[in-house]
Amino acid sequence: MITPKQQEPARMPAFRISDSETMQNKLMYQIRSGNLNEDAMNRLQTQCTEELHQLRSELDVMLQELREIADRLNGRTIQESIAA
Q: What pTM was computed for the model?
């Protein structure tokens, strides 16, 4: 059976804050020490919001793929039980 192609999540920039624990720690230090001005904080918030949305989209796609795999496996199990 041919299934429609999964919708790809939006492309992330090459750099993701969530990919680098070191960058997360550096940003936390900058925020806590008050070294980021309001414009930088707004840009950071926008980037984090976009990244969170894109990561959620990626997780939704993966979850759907896992559900499809589980459905196929359950279908085989049921068919094997009937055949036996």
A: 0.62
pLDDT tens, per residue, the chain with 84 residues: 344 445 555 555 567 888 889 999 999 999 999 999 999 999 999 999 999 999 999 999 999 999 999 988 888 766 666 665
Residue 7 in any domain: the answer is no
Q: Under a CB-based contact definition with an 8 Å cutoff, are residues 75 and 1 in contact?
A: no
Instruction: Give the residue numbers spanning the domain of 22.
Output: 18-83
Give a yes or no: residue 5 inside a domain. no
Domain count, the chain: 1
